[in-house]
Hints:
Elements: H1 7-13, H2 18-29, E1 34-38, E2 41-46, E3 49-56, E4 61-65, E5 78-79, E6 90-94, H3 102-117, H4 135-143, H5 145-153, H6 156-167, H7 172-187
Helix pairs in contact: 2-3, 4-5, 6-7
Amino acid sequence: MKKVTSIEEYIENHENWSDLLNELRSILLSTELEETLKWSAPVYTINGKNVVGLGAFKHHAGIWFFNGVFLKDEQNKLVNAQEGKTKALRQWRFSENESVDKNLVKAYVLEAIENQKLGKEIKPVRNKKEVVLEGLLKDALLASRELKTAFEKLTPGKQREYVDHISSAKREATQINRLEKVKPMILEGKGLHDKYKNC
């Protein structure tokens, strides 16, 4: 998707949907939501939190509600764009020549604003993998209290980097070589890829 620098440009780039997008935009602008551009698309926020977005695609255009799962949706207008993947996001799709019930759209938007003010949102859950020590690294940590202490002070992400780096080598000689190279880094409290970060 081409990066856009304004809402107007986004709408111009979707000229077959421009009338609908402008109509939906006017409804959104009639509320207290703040208009912004995120991910090269119009997004409407309150207190810095995403509430509603506008989008145009090949076969439909419409609005999406970032925490639409909490909307009552008594008119059955909302769909889950990616069933099984999307937990909170819901879309209201419009096809070509479909008219917009401004009052109904605004009612949904106002409910979404109220839900956001009440703090109704699904926070993403990060899947934390457990660090599993094995093989040469485990033996090295058992053999050196200093190395073990330094390793335990590292974040789980940095620990996993070292575990994966050493265990991914197929030959034992390569594993030994990698272990010897990373020992000083572990003792210094550095992550395997720290030198590439914040460059």
